[in-house]
Design a protein that fits this description.
Layout (H helix, E strand, L loop, with lengths): L8 E3 L2 E2 L12 H11 L21 E2 L15 E4 L12 H13 L4 E6 L2 H12 L24 E6 L3 H12 L5 E6 L18 E2 L4 E2 L11 E5 L11 H13 L3 E6 L1 H7 L32
Parallel strand pairs: 1-4, 4-5, 5-6, 6-7, 7-10, 10-11
Antiparallel strand pairs: 2-3, 8-9
Helix pairs in contact: 3-4
């Protein structure tokens, strides 16, 4: 089982990463990797560059766990690479393709893939679904997906910690073929609008560049995760950022999952930890919704 509230289990066919944006500044996985290296765990003996990574957090590929989900008999919700980024530049295309083959074959499970490498995700998924990497290893079912019909049990998401990165990553996500798309606004370190809107929308605010209501032909994510930052030096979370993002998601018909309010809020309210107990939050923020599971066979 995973301690991450919005998933069931984690699966790490790769470990290690490098910082690419402000949301990485206090990466929990980097700190954990250093501890696991000190404990002697074999998967965390590769060191990354000091400037962008750290001890035990260099990118490493793990063939030995690649097919693990095929052996899990009961359906699970699986967070892919809680300790890495599947679309990191040092993960070979062929290995990512094998990860996707496993996910598609293990269709009884629902896989959640979250990335900060939006451009590579978009490019790779289109290439994968076009059949570019089609092979016949490990009893993988023949590709049933096309660019217009991605596997239903693979959810794709991007991190969006502030408006700068929301503007870059969310449009790339929405242009990536996926059955379910999600945005993780964690750590949320500034206000975020899910979209910049269209100038032809009747509710468009030309001064602010956003729309106040539904836009024609606008596609928005299916799920939004919101969370404050935790750990030493955590940046504060303004609860109005949370409320605004929650309301945007609701207007878009997306599920909302408020994960935690962060260490600063927890300290200010004397509740300890990272503010992850909904019972201590303002009542209107106690929202933990999930999209409907989309696992099933290739033709489901």
């Amino acid at each position: 089982m995973s301690s991450i509230e919005w998933t069931g289990v984690t699966w790490n066919p790769t470990t290690g990463c490098d910082r690419v944006s402000p949301g990485c500044d206090r990466c929990y996985a980097l700190t954990m990797a250093g501890r696991l290296k000190a404990m002697g765990l074999a998967k965390y003996q590769t060191d990354g560059p000091e400037r962008t990574s750290g001890p035990g957090f260099g990118l490493a590929v793990h063939e030995d766990v690649l097919t693990a989900p095929l052996r899990w008999r009961s359906p699970r919700t699986v967070f892919v690479n809680s300790m890495s980024d599947l679309f990191h530049a040092h993960v070979p295309d062929e290995f990512i393709a094998r990860v996707f083959d496993v996910m598609q074959t293990a269709h009884r499970h629902t896989f959640q893939v979250l990335t900060k490498r939006h451009a590579r995700m978009q490019s790779f998924v289109r290439r994968y679904l076009s059949g570019e990497f089609a092979t016949e290893p490990l009893d993988v079912a023949p590709l049933a997906a096309t660019v217009d019909r991605p596997p239903r049990n693979i959810w794709l998401g991007v991190s969006a910690e502030n408006q700068k990165w929301a503007n870059i990553r969310i449009p790339a996500l929405m242009e990536t073929p996926a059955a379910t798309r999600f945005v993780s606004a964690e750590p949320l370190i500034g206000p975020v609008r899910l979209h910049r809107g269209h100038a032809h929308c009747p509710t468009h605010d030309f001064a602010g560049g956003f729309c106040s209501g539904p836009c024609p032909d606008l596609v928005l994510p299916d799920w939004v995760i919101i969370g404050g930052e935790s750990g030493p030096g955590a940046r504060p979370l303004d609860l109005e950022w949370v409320r605004d993002l929650r309301d945007q998601a609701r207007r878009a018909g997306a599920a909302v999952f408020v994960k935690q309010l962060g260490s600063v809020w927890a300290r200010e309210h004397e509740v300890g930890g990272k503010g992850g107990d909904p019972g201590t939050w303002p009542e209107d923020l106690r929202v933990r919704q999930m999209p409907e599971p989309t696992s099933g066979g290739p033709d489901a």
